[in-house]
């Protein structure tokens, strides 16, 4: 063994992980969060918007609740750190311009319906022939080929067809979606991974790839163990009640809700029942000793309506006397998993997130304000996440980006006058 | 599609040659290294029979019979890896772990912060034997801060991140995603992206680094606009069920059969008229009150009741196909059974792969939802390992131990 051979301690460089990587992102439903991950680690991400602006500019919420292209907070968040050019990809001259830009790029991320980029002669085959190291990532609802490739889709429809929607909500009503365009975001996250994998290959051997991401299939990765339940046990998993058994699920408390997982089964949970009951006993809850009887350690009992009601009778008075923060603190003291259902407002008060300097302030030139938003989604010691610039104004960088590609400022003006950019 | 258990690695796999010492278990850790393994990384899962990865004991099991090598939950997250049993609490284990790490590019763990340090396998320790290591730790709250020692599950991560609170029907308790969602997509994808970026940095500079992923932080990153609505406008968003701003109606409607539903989103007047046509243009729905998107949004609850009364007798798949033919965004709310048995698009993409597992037999795995063309690789090559299945193989390949040394270490309770 050569354990003593090496000496050096942890490296201290503050480098840029994706330095020198140039990404062209075609603005659309898909791709924004993928581009955001690249920008955060230092790639140069250029957003290609139609002259009328990306549709994300019309997505709320808005600064001061006032809809305007430069006021969208969704846009401000997803596109922070990027530059923007305008370009009409429907226009043949615009397509020529795109080709010239693409020739100098390492990565293209696009989410146009399958076949649309090819119909503009801007598809992977069109561009890779002269640029074999190009990584070209296409994100669509269903992939580039297949029987459903022409289907219309929204986030809700993708959650439905991908199988996650069926697992969400309440057993006594229709399935209910998880918040916040998670199908689209799932596709973007996998697209970022696929793009990064392909960059490693392209930088090693000069061969690029066409990365084909299907949002429906991405959603299917989120169904947990439901596929295996069906295949191995013939059981079709369904949505479960907010409190599937005593000690597990969402409980109301004085100022909101908490989630608790102190049940005698599931992943490693057996050891949590006792400390939870101890907390109730120490807190003077009437009848808490009853919960120490052995039957409470069997799922056969805790999943019954009778058990749930008996548990609620002891637990709810205790919960309603305490805030979610107090319950959280107590659970940490007694060592069992209980967590507040934080609201967005709570996140800003979290001592943990404060300690981690999670939220960052990004200027918003259009309003002169500063926008506080989530910062690094992961911490890399040597190559930290940075937001180099606010989200761009529409076409803000036309005059900066086009000239190095051989367009004089006069030509840029001319293209603008013709509505190409 | 059935692949042989010993399919040859495709030279096109982008992570071929990357070695991962995987101390991950249960959720996020195992899924992250699976993503790397599927794309060619050589992942050694370090586990021990003295304190099992609890997913080995988690349902579902092959034929419903419990067994540490029979869990489908475990299998799904650990295919393509080799299993080395190493009892890290044994005093002789650490030097073996460090020897494995010395030959690795990546070390991954998702223990409660402080655990790896207590085992003598913290980042500083590891740098002594492998200065350019990429060392990723994944935990609920990150490695420092007042709550860092609090452990949790995907559900608690979603709760701490406000994703849970924001999901559900207004007026009812929050319903979340119904799963441990952060463990399945947000955290592993962010973690894998960070590792890949660090690999690139290393190949350019020769330097490794430490990556600290807090599951809460990668999950909150997915609800940025809700955070901004509060920090900028002081607005705390509330649950809105299946409603979507700007689309009306947007909902989930009952169909023929037990617990059968269809999701429909109407994004413009044209698709609204197409929906009306398909539903037979009932008078109640063609009324002027629903003519514009704004009026439909204003009367969405009433509208949804009326639509439900027209979809209730329809076959979900037939209705979806007819609506799609009219250009309406509609999708059956599919069950896992539907995804496996019925969905022709997932079939077309070969999403489900059946591998021959030594104890479970032919069993199901899901392929990564990305195809790296133009010639996509076979990403699923080996089924999940039995506990310790590759202990001898790894000891010979990566640790340079002879048979008798291995026997001794097993007898001593080290390689167990």
Report on this model:
The complex is a heterodimer of chains A (about 425) and B (about 425). With about 425 residues, chain A is α/β, with parallel strands linked by helices. Helices cover about 35% and strands about 15% of the residues of chain A. Chain A has helices at about 30-40, 75-80, 90-100, 115-120, 125-130, 155-160, 180-205, 215-220, 225-235, 275-280, 300, 305-320, 325-335, 345-350, 350-355, 400, 410-415; strands at about 20-25, 45-50, 85, 105-110, 135-140, 210-215, 250-255, 255-260, 340, 360-365, 370-375, 380. In chain A, the strands form 3 sheets. Chain A has a 6-stranded parallel β-sheet. The radius of gyration of chain A is 26 Å and the shape is elongated. The termini of chain A are far apart. The model of chain A is unreliable at about 1-10 (pLDDT under 50). Chain B is elongated, with a radius of gyration of 25 Å. In chain B, helix 1 packs across helix 9 (about 185-205). In chain B, the strands form 3 sheets. Chain B has a 6-stranded parallel β-sheet with strand order 4-3-2-5-6-7, sandwiched between helices. A 3-stranded mixed β-sheet of chain B has the order 1-11-12. The two termini of chain B are about 35 Å apart. At the A-B interface, helix 2, helix 6, helix 7, strand 6 and helix 8 of A face helix 2, helix 3, helix 5, helix 6 and helix 7 of B. Strand 6 of chain A pairs antiparallel with strand 13 (about 370-375) of chain B.
């Amino acid at each position: 063994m050569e354990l003593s051979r090496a000496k050096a301690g942890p490296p201290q460089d503050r480098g840029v992980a994706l330095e020198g990587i140039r990404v062209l992102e075609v603005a659309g439903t898909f791709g924004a969060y993928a581009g955001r991950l690249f920008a955060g680690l230092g790639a140069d991400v250029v957003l290609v918007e139609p002259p009328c602006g990306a549709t994300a500019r019309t997505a709320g919420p808005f600064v001061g609740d006032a809809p305007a292209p430069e006021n969208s907070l969704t846009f401000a968040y997803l596109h922070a750190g990027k530059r923007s050019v305008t370009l009409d990809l429907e226009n043949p001259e615009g397509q020529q311009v795109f080709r010239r830009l693409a020739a100098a790029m390492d990565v293209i991320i696009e989410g146009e319906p399958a076949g649309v980029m090819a119909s503009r002669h801007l598809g992977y085959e069109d561009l890779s022939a002269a640029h074999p190291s190009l990584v070209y990532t296409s994100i669509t609802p269903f992939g580039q080929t297949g029987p459903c490739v022409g289907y219309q889709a929204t986030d809700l429809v993708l959650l439905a067809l991908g199988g996650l929607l069926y697992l969400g909500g309440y057993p006594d009503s229709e399935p209910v979606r998880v918040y916040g365009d998670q199908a689209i975001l799932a596709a973007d996250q996998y697209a970022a991974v696929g793009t990064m994998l392909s960059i490693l290959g392209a930088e090693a051997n000069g061969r690029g790839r066409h990365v084909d991401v299907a949002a429906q299939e991405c959603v299917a990765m989120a169904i947990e163990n439901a596929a295996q339940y069906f295949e191995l046990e013939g059981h079709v998993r369904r949505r479960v009640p907010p409190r599937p058994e005593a000690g597990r699920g969402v409980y109301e408390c004085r100022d909101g809700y908490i989630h608790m997982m102190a049940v005698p089964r599931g992943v490693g949970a057996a050891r949590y029942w006792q400390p939870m009951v101890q907390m109730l006993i120490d807190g003077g809850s009437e009848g808490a000793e009853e919960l120490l009887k052995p039957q409470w350690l069997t799922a056969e009992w805790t999943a019954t309506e009778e058990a749930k009601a008996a548990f609620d009778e002891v637990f709810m008075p205790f919960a309603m006397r305490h805030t979610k923060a107090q319950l959280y603190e107590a659970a940490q003291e007694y060592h069992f998993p209980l967590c507040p259902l934080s609201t967005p407002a709570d996140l800003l008060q979290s001592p943990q997130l404060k300690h981690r300097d999670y939220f960052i302030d990004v200027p918003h030139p259009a309003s002169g304000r500063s926008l506080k938003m989530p910062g690094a989604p992961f911490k890399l010691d040597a190559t930290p996440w940075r937001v180099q610039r606010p989200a761009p104004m529409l076409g803000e960088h036309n005059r900066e980006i086009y000239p190095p590609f051989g367009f004089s400022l006069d030509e840029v003006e001319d293209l603008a006058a013709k509505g190409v950019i | 599609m059935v692949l042989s258990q010993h399919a040859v690695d495709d030279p096109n796999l982008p992570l071929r040659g990357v070695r991962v010492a995987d101390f991950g278990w249960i959720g996020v850790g195992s899924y992250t290294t699976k993503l790397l393994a599927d794309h060619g990384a050589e992942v050694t899962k370090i586990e021990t029979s003295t304190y099992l990865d609890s997913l080995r004991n988690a349902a579902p099991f092959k034929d419903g019979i419990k067994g540490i090598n029979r869990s489908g939950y475990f299998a799904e997250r650990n295919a393509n890896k080799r299993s080395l049993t190493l009892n890290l609490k044994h005093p002789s284990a650490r030097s073996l772990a460090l020897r494995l790490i010395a030959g690795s590019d990546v070390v991954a763990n998702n223990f409660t912060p402080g655990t790896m340090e207590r085992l003598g396998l913290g980042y500083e320790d590891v740098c002594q034997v492998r200065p350019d290591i990429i060392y990723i730790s994944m935990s609920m709250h990150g490695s420092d801060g007042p709550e860092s020692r609090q452990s949790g599950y995907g559900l608690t991560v979603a709760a701490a991140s406000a994703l849970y609170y924001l999901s559900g029907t207004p007026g009812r308790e929050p319903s979340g995603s119904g799963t441990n969602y952060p463990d399945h997509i947000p955290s592993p994808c962010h973690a894998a992206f960070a590792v890949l970026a660090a690999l690139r940095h290393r190949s350019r500079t020769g330097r490794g680094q430490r990556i600290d992923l807090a599951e809460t932080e990668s999950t909150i990153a997915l609800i940025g606009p809700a955070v901004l609505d509060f920090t900028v406008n002081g607005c705390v968003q509330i649950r809105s069920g299946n409603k979507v701003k700007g689309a009306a109606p947007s909902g989930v409607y009952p169909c023929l059969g037990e617990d059968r539903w269809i999701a429909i989103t109407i994004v413009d007047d044209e698709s609204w008229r197409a929906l009306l046509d398909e539903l037979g243009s009932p008078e109640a729905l063609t009324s002027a009150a629903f003519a514009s998107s704004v009026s439909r949004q204003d009367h969405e609850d009433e509208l949804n009741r009326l639509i439900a009364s027209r979809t209730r007798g329809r076959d979900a798949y037939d209705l979806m196909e007819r609506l799609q033919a009219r250009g309406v965004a509609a999708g059956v709310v599919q069950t896992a059974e539907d995804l496996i048995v019925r969905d022709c698009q997932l079939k077309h993409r070969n999403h489900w792969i059946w591998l021959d597992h030594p104890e479970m037999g032919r069993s199901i795995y899901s392929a990564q939802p990305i195809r790296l063309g133009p010639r996509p690789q076979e990403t699923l090559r080996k089924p999940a390992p039995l506990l310790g299945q590759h202990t001898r193989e790894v000891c010979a390949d990566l640790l340079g131990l002879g048979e008798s040394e291995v026997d001794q270490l097993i007898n001593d309770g080290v390689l167990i």
